[in-house]
Design brief:
Elements: H1 2-26, H2 29-56
Helix pairs in contact: 1-2
């Protein structure tokens, strides 16, 4: 389960980064902000999984 969550976090981070860059390139501010939000969601998921790993060991 943890591996799936880590992969999901990485996917969200990459998707968010792509949206952010695409929005910046096209001047679409709402797309850029949505990308930042998606990336932050992935960052939070990754932090949660890392915290769980620390307490497992």
């Amino acid at each position: 389960m943890a591996r799936e969550q880590k992969a999901k976090a990485k996917k969200e981070q990459l998707k968010g980064k792509a949206m952010e860059i695409g929005g910046r390139a096209t001047g679409d501010r709402s797309m850029e902000m949505a990308g930042r939000a998606e990336k932050a969601k992935g960052d939070a998921r990754q932090a949660k999984e890392k915290t769980k790993d620390i307490f497992k060991h």
